[in-house]
Amino acid sequence: MTTAYHPQTNGLTERFNKTLADMLAMYVDVEQKTWDRILPSVTFAYNTARQDTTEPIEYTAPDFVARLVTQAEESCQLARIRTLEEQEKDRRRYNSRHRVVLYQPGDLVWIYIPVHKVGRSEKLLKKYFGLYQVLRKLSDVTYQVHDFDPTSRRRKSKDIVHVLRMKPYYDPDLQAHFNDSVASDDRRFGESTPSTGRNDYTGPTTRSRSKALKQTR
């Protein structure tokens, strides 16, 4: 129990009150009307100061910092594991539908180049350009190509493209010759295109066409 006019009975509190008053006196204005505004700053300064009795700074949170560091490390490890799992899922999903296409040096290819023209529909624009010739394979998914024009003497520009942007080129003359050979073999062996029993589609049945069909019946 404390008694009036005897501060020694509550020395810790009274000592703090004196220290607080001394600190406020250093920053308060002449009229002593700003002490309440500087009180939070003075209190923070006192709490973070080193005490001779307790020595360590009382106003610290070492446990919180340690827990925060541990939680951050665990979150990073968990995020890394989840990332690897999702990458593996994407890899399996992609490989299940992906068809491997390999090109050899000297192969002719088309290259996908996005084109945007004002006033033109992008869906109707040409998407593949060429011809380009494969120079070398840089990795499983990248090739070095250059524009192919045997009649030109200018320096050919080189480019590195992803395999997904490449499409193999087929010579129209060789394709026509192949189609003729297939048709010739079919005629030789008496093979023909099997009939489906349905009439070939000749377009939509308009009112005029319907009227003409009725007249012919």
From TrEMBL:
<dbReference type="InterPro" id="IPR036397">
    <property type="entry name" value="RNaseH_sf"/>
</dbReference>
<dbReference type="InterPro" id="IPR050951">
    <property type="entry name" value="Retrovirus_Pol_polyprotein"/>
</dbReference>
<feature type="compositionally biased region" description="Polar residues">
    <location>
        <begin position="192"/>
        <end position="207"/>
    </location>
</feature>
<dbReference type="GO" id="GO:0003676">
    <property type="term" value="F:nucleic acid binding"/>
</dbReference>
<feature type="region of interest" description="Disordered">
    <location>
        <begin position="181"/>
        <end position="217"/>
    </location>
</feature>
<dbReference type="InterPro" id="IPR054465">
    <property type="entry name" value="Integrase_p58-like_C"/>
</dbReference>
<protein>
    <submittedName>
        <fullName>Transposon Ty3-I Gag-Pol polyprotein</fullName>
    </submittedName>
</protein>
<feature type="compositionally biased region" description="Basic residues">
    <location>
        <begin position="208"/>
        <end position="217"/>
    </location>
</feature>
<dbReference type="InterPro" id="IPR001584">
    <property type="entry name" value="Integrase_cat-core"/>
</dbReference>
<feature type="domain" description="Integrase catalytic">
    <location>
        <begin position="1"/>
        <end position="70"/>
    </location>
</feature>
<dbReference type="InterPro" id="IPR012337">
    <property type="entry name" value="RNaseH-like_sf"/>
</dbReference>
<dbReference type="Pfam" id="PF22938">
    <property type="entry name" value="Integrase_p58_C"/>
</dbReference>
<dbReference type="GO" id="GO:0015074">
    <property type="term" value="P:DNA integration"/>
</dbReference>
